[in-house]
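User: I'm putting together a small comparison set for a docking exercise, and I want a reference complex before I start. The sequence is below, and the ligand is magnesium ion. Could you produce the 3D structure with the ligand included, as structure tokens?
Assistant: Of course. I'll restate your input first, then give the structure tokens for the complex.
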Amino acid sequence: RAKHSGKNTYRFFDESMDESMQHRVATQRYLEQALSDSEQLQVYFQPQIDSRDGALYGAEVLVRWCRQGQWISPGEFIPIAEDSGQIIELGRWIMEAALRQLADWRARHVHIGKLSLNFSAVQLSNSDVAMELIEALKRHAIPASEVTVEFTETTLMVRSAQLERNLNLLREHAIAIAIDDFGTGYCSLSYLRELQAHYLKIDQSFIRGIGNNDSDDCIVAATIAMAKGLHMEVVAEGVETEAQTSYLTHLGCQYLQGFGFAAPMSAANLEAWLAQTKTPSERKALESSDAD
Ligand code: C2E
Ligand code: MG
Ligand code: MG
Ligand code: MG
């Protein structure tokens, strides 16, 4: 018997299920409820900063789930939703919520820049996610140049026909591609070139080592140099310190994302953040006008 005899949740468990299996099944169940009552779900946005002038370049869309007052981490539920296939429906919800928000910002002339959406391998290999994105962009009158699609290298390990169809559609519609968590998967460099991705996102594990781990310094520098040679731009993930920022900026890494600049936040908080965050040149202008 499942250890909780709670009212409506665990009764369908089989005795043979171990705890992690029970956890999975319960999470899938709760996620099903969340998808029909999407009050529980939200999209958050994490600023991406242009290292050249400190201005906001764009934001990564990150889903948030709050179930009965408890936040569940995407690191926990996304793999479960991928396993069950629910990521396809969840992904649709995220895409729609993010694009609706972007359309609203555009209508109000709030300039957020490019929105970057995470696509999981399951979405790219088992659904028409690219066509759905293209249709949603049309519906919201958002140009393709306003969005980026990010996915990890691991997505490219099994190159199904459906995956290729989705990637081709993105390319045909000039929707930028970003390789997420770069350096942690097994993407061949020749495929990387063939893919024509626009951005490489260096995984935060390498960024964390900057300044205290010579091999991480070297990996970061080599990745930035390689990306340059392949005409790709680089986004550093998980930038938390001044030392990381100056090392990355010095190497010519174009974009910086991390708690050192801003954590992921709600749309309303992003607007407030934007209103009080000046770019360095604006700050300078303010300072010199203060001095008068
Ligand atoms: P990811 O796409 O690599 O996202 C970056 C993760 O790093 C986010 O975690 C973000 O909150 C976190 N992060 C950002 N800056 C820092 C920093 O300075 N330090 C540290 N320690 N962490 C930082 P989050 O939101 O928990 O998401 C985890 C993963 O879950 C994502 O990794 C992505 O793989 C997946 N995920 C999140 N939202 C979505 C989504 O909408 N769709 C899909 N398919 N996957 C998503
Ligand atoms: Mg990402
Ligand atoms: Mg990442
Ligand atoms: Mg990740």
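Residues 181 surround magnesium ion (ligand 4) (CB under 6 Å). The first helix runs from residue 19 to 36.
User: Thanks, that's exactly what I needed.
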